[in-house]
Amino acid sequence: MVKKLVVLKNITKSYKTGKMSYQVLKGINLEVEEGDFLAIMGASGSGKSTLLNIIGLLDKPDSGTYILDGQEVSKLNKRELAYLRNRKIGFVFQAFYLVPWATAVENVLLPLLYRGNINKEDEKKAVELLKRLGLEKRINAKPNELSGGEQQRVAIARALITNPKLLLADEPTGNLDSKSSQEVMSIFKELNENGITIIMVTHDPEIADFAKKVKIIKDGTFIKE
Amino acid sequence: MFIKYKLLWGGVFHKKLRLFLSVIGIIIGVASLLLMNSFGESAKIKTLKEIETFGPEVMIVVAGSVRVHGGRAIQTEITTTLKPADAEALRKIKGIKYLSPVFNGEGIVRYLGNNLTTIINGVNEEYLLLRKFPILEGRNFLKDEILGYKKVAILGYKVKRELFGNKDPIGKIILINKLPFRVIGVLSPIGIDASNADQDDQILIPWSVAISAVYNVDYIRSIYLSVENLEEMHLIEKQINGILLKRHKVSEKNKDFEIVKAEDILQVKTQTTKLFSTLVKSISILCLLVGALGVTAIMTLSVNERKKEIGIRKALGAEDRNILFQFLAESVFITLFGGAIGILIGVAGSLIFLPLFNYPLVFPWIPIFTSALLTIFSGIIAGIYPAYKATRIESIILLKQDF
Question: Contact, B123 vs B101, CB < 8 A?
């Protein structure tokens, strides 16, 4: 039997703006198995980013349960969540979010800073990852010297340096031209084939086509396929 | 290892101009603090040295009422009641080693067309021994020259240089207020003494000649004396007081003389320097605090600009305490950077200005240490608020807020 990596049951979340309370997620149920490649699609305001925040342990649900890799996580404190993010999850964002004053290889090593030391072997591994992603000539380049596609590949390397079980991507091709988008998506596909579970949020059907499964979110719930 | 620290603190150097501007306050604060501290240290040593040249065993009986003010003994009015006979009377006290009547005034000195105005000190042959002024060339007065109204002079080092240059002055005749004097000696360079008088800018002549021929008065201005035994200082002071009260027929309340000891001058001097340095130190610390406030402002701005960086660090596993430590360390680092520049300026300033103002050169180790400590402290104070603000930033800002 395939192990379930992410199990969400009845997740709700609302935001307050002034005196108004707005329910963004209205009882989300989701199961993601190890090795899955899931694309979550939805229009602006559908709640997909909030859902990704919760799956990525960046935000807590108001109610419901979330089991990540066999562990109930919806009641954990900030420190425990930070620990789990570092060990189990890799993030890829639309705007890359590289540290502007650090080189490519330094950016890749950033997650390991929060595990304690960074040793020579870690540096070797980071360089290796960048090479695998076709950046062997850009190892010591600063983010502003890199193209969008290159920056996103650095960000992917940063997500992979910790050997995460789960890769979360938020519109990973949103800031890229179509050629770079294709490159990034084929990297995702290859990673998935090598066993990494991927959950990706996008509004682009062409990009969603790379995933094995697609779910559509609307007004805070998934639409039944 | 290096990468670890670069990832932790590399952000500090990202904006170099701003880094510099933010620490100007710190630089000024630390530099002035250091400068004032080393001046204070140096002033202490200077005072002690001056007192040493003055001699703890020396006492001065000064005519008139005297206020010791800012380390100077100031005669408030001219009093004519202290006579040479008073000096003779004091000789009877047991335990006095040297004693010299002193009459000092200004005088115009000429030698072969060279003119200068200097202090003329009328003294006796014991004065040089009492003040421990060494003679560079020539000799001291003889007792007979004092008693015999001989017009002989011993020149201060500066006076000799100005009148004679490198020539030998011994035996030459100079004019003091138009009267001819034969030069018999030159003093070694002495410098400024505890009463703030430049002892190189004076001419010594017999006191008998000074009051009769040069200034035409029947009184003296002071009596210098030294004691054999320091422990008898107070006893002898009492005796002097008694004798002079009797001779002048005055009471303690309205007496017309004052006895000044090195001790008194030292006391007032240290009090004044203490007050002054406390004042300046408080201002410097205030400046440092204002500087720290500047760092707080810049760091708060920096935290606002780096929200995304903080968000991504948190998403990648940074805990609040990691972020807190990072930004606190940045503040401390920035202040230390400013502090280091301030210390450099302060040290350079001390090395330049101490000799310029005739202060003894001391390398300010202790001031450097205290400045560094204060800088770290103000860096931590400066960093608390921005670092706390940084921990409040959450990673959810990384995802577009479109729900």
Answer: yes
